[in-house]
Design goal:
about 290 residues, alpha+beta, 2 helices
Length: about 290
């Protein structure tokens, strides 16, 4: 038939350290209640002399921006890209601006301050993060020399109330100079019920009244339920223990009743057999 060929396949199986996901109560956000089309679970507002501008709403639905969430550290990162003729003029090729950004917070409890980091040549110099879309850096008919990627990082977030910061910024480049002070606030608005993730586009799996964490989809189950999706009855819950005890008592009662019935039947049978044997003996004696 021909030469026989042998194919060997090696399969390695390893546990996923991120499964099941951890429900971090520090940065839990209830499902969104307001009627808004914003798709991010966090909304930032910049208060400046130019007025109020919603910053973290992703109005273009991911075409130029994205939000990444870290549940374990209650951290959020926002990426957005800027490109255009103006930036090509303000920051000529071969130059790197000087930039500084700092914030303070005097709330109680005190909030960790956000950081802002620009990547001036993001076409080839940018962080490795799956939230960053490579298509952001593809030019159309007009080719730009600068693709500026900005990263805003919010650390150790407290989501139970809005965080308000006083910030200053200083940007100096060959053809532009900006110094500004501003108030910056971040409010946790959550995702619509049944969804989670930076874009509130991932479907939750929590059942039986479980709460879905908007950062990673982890479930917080009611006391009566357990499991990744709150779909397994908890054997340790008092209600289930009561039902289990009741079932045990029922089975034990049925078993005990069966034993008593068998014993009673046995006694009756023995009694009947003995009585018949005695009657036979009496009849035999009478005949003699």
């Amino acid at each position: 038939i021909g030469d026989k060929k042998e194919i060997k396949i090696k399969i390695s199986v390893a546990d996923d350290p991120n499964y099941p996901p951890f429900f971090n109560p520090r940065c839990y956000i209830p499902p969104r209640t307001r009627n808004t089309t914003d798709i991010w679970p966090l909304m930032g507002t910049l208060h400046s002399l130019l007025g109020y501008q919603a910053l973290f709403t992703d109005r273009k639905r991911g075409s130029r921006s994205a939000m990444a969430l870290d549940n374990d550290r209650c951290e959020a990162k926002v990426y957005f890209i800027k490109k255009g003729d103006d930036w090509d003029y303000y920051i000529p090729v071969g130059t790197t601006p000087t930039f500084s950004f700092g914030c303070t917070n005097d709330q109680t409890p005190r909030r960790a301050t956000p950081t802002l980091k620009p990547y001036w040549n993001a076409s080839y110099d940018r962080p490795e993060d799956s939230a960053i879309n490579p298509l952001w850096f593809v030019d159309g008919k007009k080719k730009h020399r600068r693709h500026i990627l900005t990263e805003i990082r919010l650390k150790d977030m407290i989501t139970e109330s809005p965080s308000v910061y006083e910030c200053t910024m200083d940007l100096q480049a060959p053809n532009i100079g900006i110094k500004a002070s501003m108030k910056f606030s971040v409010e946790a608005i959550g995702c619509h019920d049944g969804f989670y993730g930076g874009n509130c586009s991932e479907a939750c799996v929590c059942q039986n009244g479980g709460s879905c964490h908007p950062f990673n989809g982890a479930c917080k189950c009611p006391d009566e339920w357990t499991g990744r999706a709150c779909d397994i009855k908890s054997a340790l819950h008092p209600h289930n223990l009561h039902r289990k005890r009741a079932a045990i008592y029922m089975y034990a009662g049925a078993a005990l009743g069966g034993i008593v019935l068998i014993a009673a039947v046995t006694i009756v049978v023995v009694y009947v057999i003995k009585r018949r044997a005695r009657n036979i003996r009496y009849v035999s004696d009478a005949l003699v």
